[in-house]
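Internal tracking record. Fields below are filled automatically when a chain is submitted to the structure queue. Please do not edit lines marked as system-generated. If the sequence contains nonstandard residues, flag them in the REMARKS field before resubmitting.
Queue: standard
Priority: normal
Entity type: single polypeptide chain
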Amino acid sequence: MTLPRRKALTLIGGGTVLAATASAAGFLTTRTPHSALAPWEAAGGYDDPRLNALSFALLAPNPHNLQPWQVGLDGPDTVLIYRDPARRLPETDPHDRQITIGLGCFIEQLVLATGAGGHAVDLTLYPDGEAGPVARAVFTEGGTPDPLSAQILNRRSCKEPFEPTPLTAAHANELELFADIHTAAPVVEALKTLTWAAWEVEAMTPRTMMESVDLMRFGKAEIEANPDGIDLGGPMLETLMLAGLLSRAAQSDPESQSFQQGVEIYREMLHATPAYAALVSPTNMRKDQIEAGRRWLRLNLKCTALGVALHPVSQCLQEYPEMAPHYATAHKRLARPGQTVQMLGRLGYGPEVPRTPRWPLETKLLNA
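SYSTEM-GENERATED OUTPUT FOLLOWS
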């Protein structure tokens, strides 16, 4: 279970906010994991146009921030993109559908960054079948920048309660070019109920809950050692860690105060949602999943340009037995027979949120 960074989390007995000692306060001022965030600052600092584009691509959204991509440089102008077989979510994503969507986000951000750098990409998906690379990208001169590329460094996923303000009709109309946008009150209320029920299933099913807990990075040292997964850092959360109120053991125990408080925070967050975006594919082939990721990335960037917050809430789309009733409900409500709902996200107006950690580009190159 990922804890949103809001207020003081009030995980403190008696309702009092924990005050750090003077020495702890000094410690907490150094809690920013600068090395884990360095890839955001390094983006664009490469002479090779392929490395330059890849340095932006690795900032793309992806499930649980697993960053499931590996890349190889082939000859003077080609990039081969692979799925890292070690980066999976076998409990909640047993067929690697969500992981493949994340690769689609990476591919689209690569294409956008390439255009912004004055090059074009000739892209071939699964050039050697599904056992080989996910994509081959051949770089050529003469690309045209897409306006969405200007938002790459500003994009975030906002895991916070949204303002009660409805999504404006103008914003909904613009976003309809990228996804199915749901703003009607009865539909929104039904989706709030569905996303909360699905989140509870994932949080209360031991093996799916532990999949998330195992990916949590508690504090600066863990985040910098493994700049992936679910980062729990910053002065507020590390204050709770110092007090023993936020730990891996507590997040593994549904009876703990920390876990129960997190459940309440998530309930409030998921219900503070004025609109939803859904991506639906005609079928559920790998290329549909890649295309869904490319569309999701463009939706993210368009939301950023408009000042709209977007947060994926696709638990109801996961394909394991306990989630089956909610999966069926989501498809009955959001898709026609035979179609697949690939992504579902909350839309609204939320606070500014920090960047997420990333592995440096060099760690993702197979032939660095």
